[in-house]
Design brief:
There is one protein chain. The protein has 122 residues and is an all-alpha fold. The protein has 2 domains: 47 residues; 53 residues, Orthogonal Bundle (Arc Repressor Mutant, subunit A). Helix 1 crosses helix 3 and helix 5 packs across helix 6. The radius of gyration is 17 Å and the shape is elongated.
C-alpha cells in the first residue's frame, strides 16, 4: 500500500484545516475546498487527519459539532440559537439530526445528562 509522507509543514497545514473547521462550524467544507484553502494535496490532508486525530476530516467535524451542541444545551441556550450557532438550517433540522445521531431529542438528552443517565461525551 502506498504510504503518504507527511512533513512537519504538512502536519501544520492539517492543524490549520482542523482550526478552520472548528472556527467556522456553520460551514460545510469539502475535502477539495479545505485542501485548497490550506495549500495541501487532498491525499496529504486526509492522511494528516488520520495521523493527527485518528479520524477523517468529516468525523473530526462531526465529533466537534456534537460536542459543541451538547455544551450549548447544557448552558441552557435555546434550541433555535444552538441550531444557528452550529450551522443547522433551523431548530427542527437540529432536533432531527440529533435524534438520528443519539437516539434522543436534544431535550431528552439534556434531561438524561442532568440526571447523569447519559454520559456527556456519548
Amino acid at each position: 500500500m502506498y504510504q503518504v509522507h507527511l512533513s512537519l509543514k504538512d502536519l501544520q497545514k492539517v492543524r490549520n484545516a482542523a482550526q478552520l473547521i472548528t472556527e467556522k462550524l456553520e460551514q460545510h467544507y469539502t475535502i477539495p475546498v479545505l485542501a485548497e484553502m490550506v495549500d495541501l494535496p487532498e491525499k496529504k490532508l486526509k492522511a494528516g487527519f488520520k495521523h493527527l486525530f485518528n479520524k477523517g476530516a468529516f468525523r473530526y467535524r462531526s465529533n466537534f459539532l456534537w460536542n459543541r451542541v451538547k455544551t450549548l444545551l447544557l448552558e441552557d441556550k435555546p434550541l433555535k440559537s444552538v441550531a444557528q450557532d452550529t450551522g443547522f438550517k433551523d431548530k427542527s433540522a437540529l432536533i432531527k439530526a440529533f435524534k438520528k445521531e443519539f437516539g434522543l431529542t436534544p431535550i431528552q438528552w439534556k434531561k438524561a445528562s442532568e440526571n447523569d443517565v447519559v454520559s456527556h461525551s456519548s
